[in-house]
Design brief:
27% of the residues lie in helices and 24% in strands. By secondary structure, it is of the alpha+beta class. The protein folds into two domains: 17-253, no CATH class; 257-375, Jelly Rolls (Sandwich). The strands form four sheets. A five-stranded antiparallel beta sheet has the order 1-2-7-4-5, sandwiched between helices. A four-stranded antiparallel beta sheet has the order 9-15-11-12, with helices on both faces. Strands 6-3-8 form a three-stranded antiparallel beta sheet. Helix 3 runs parallel beside helix 7 and helix 5 (203-219) crosses helix 7 (238-247). The longest helix has 19 residues, at 357-375. The protein is globular, with a radius of gyration of 20 Å. The relative contact order is 0.17.
Length: 377
């Protein structure tokens, strides 16, 4: 396989993993929190990041970024209302699938996170300092966590994703319902100890190690990376976990969501897809398509579409139309997504609340491959 093809595959998978999202990277102000050591003595006391401690080092950075937004306050739920667009993005591969709420929780003596009944999608994802998924819940309910559940420490990073009721005609009412669902998130704790990292890592060496991990992956792509990289200690493969953490910290394991990615070029492309087997009714599951430019950024105004807002064909399939910015629409065009004109682009496919993860992985991979084959001609 040529280096170019390997890099293209790696870039496509990296794009798909952004759920968040990935959550830690979805707020424009978070990255401003990182500061270099201010003295020689600080630098001398820093630990160099290696492959072995990379996951913990990058997770510590994620914890500290979030705490910079709450004034280092523990057990405080912080909600984000803004949706992403070309003017509201600070990091690569942001998306419009959900709104986010986050909290660094001290679980010593036991703690809970609760979501209330909501008409739309909502998911709780609990990660510890080693990016181990401690618990997850889709829908309303309570997640219980204690320090005994963790691989290390007594604090967890909780990400709550809240979907939008996109089929509502009144968009202000749609936003209000989602905001209310966010505001009803509650936590209970028995401890309020500050988060103090056991190790102070060198940020410079962390960045270098992350680059090395991504470079190695681009040159030597791993099969089924997404499947193997998330989840609990028993579920995940450590080498794959390093890569998915480097790509996008905070992603969900396959019990909650699956991802894949295709690539494209040209001013007009069209594809008709079937639907994945998701928990549409019980879990409010949905799927989405998001377009990024070659650098992984949102570059058009109508850059994504969600299954809740798609117009179906009579047979239940969906026809998606990918049009370059400024390209005239035809009366027959359905479910339009705008792409960067005259440029290579990537398409992230995300499917939330899969009924069967393996089956859903096959679905996203199938359509990613079909789109790439058709759109890259």
């Amino acid at each position: 396989m040529s280096t170019f093809k390997q890099s293209t595959i790696a870039f496509a998978i990296i794009t798909a993993l952004s759920s968040t999202a990935y959550a830690v990277e979805s707020n424009p102000t978070i990255n401003k929190a990182e500061k270099a050591p201010t003295s020689v003595s600080e630098k001398k006391s820093e630990t160099i990041v290696t492959k072995e401690n990379f996951i913990n080092a990058d997770t510590v950075r994620a914890y500290l970024k979030e705490l910079s937004q709450t004034g280092a306050e523990i057990n405080k739920v912080r909600t984000v209302r803004d949706r992403c667009d070309t003017d509201n993005q600070d990091v690569i591969r942001m998306n419009d699938d959900t709104l986010y709420s986050r909290v660094i929780l001290d679980v010593k003596g036991g703690a809970t996170i609760t979501t209330q009944p909501y008409e739309g999608y909502q998911n709780i994802n609990v990660l510890d300092e080693n990016h181990v998924q401690i618990a997850a819940l889709t829908g309303s309910g309570t997640v219980k966590v204690s320090e005994k559940d963790l691989s290390t420490g007594q604090h967890v990073y909780v990400i709550i994703r809240t979907g939008l009721l996109r089929d509502m005609k009144d968009k202000e009412a749609m936003k209000k319902k989602a905001f209310d669902a966010q505001d009803k998130i509650t936590v209970t704790t028995n401890s309020n100890d500050p988060f103090v990292p056991k190790t102070t890592y060198s940020q410079e060496s962390l960045d270098k190690m992350k680059f090395k991990i991504l470079k190695d992956f681009a040159l030597h792509p791993q099969k089924d990376l997404i499947k193997r990289g998330f989840g609990s200690v028993k579920e995940r493969d450590l080498d794959a976990a390093r890569v998915v953490v480097a790509i996008g910290w905070g992603g969900m394991s396959s019990e909650s969501a699956v991802y894949s990615s295709g690539t494209g070029k040209g001013d007009r492309n069209e594809i008709t897809i079937d639907t994945p087997n998701l928990g549409y009714k019980d879990k409010k599951g949905f799927f989405s398509f998001t377009v990024y430019n070659g650098d992984g950024y949102i570059a058009t105004q109508k850059y994504a579409i969600n299954s809740d807002e798609m117009i179906p064909n009579p047979d239940g399939t969906y026809t998606l139309t990918f049009l370059a910015s400024g390209e005239p629409t035809l009366e027959s065009d359905k479910n339009i997504i705008r792409t960067p004109r005259g440029k290579f682009y990537t398409i992230a496919i995300r499917a939330y609340a899969p009924k069967d993860a393996e089956e859903s992985f096959k679905w996203v991979d199938k359509w990613a491959a079909k789109m790439t084959e058709k759109f890259m001609k």
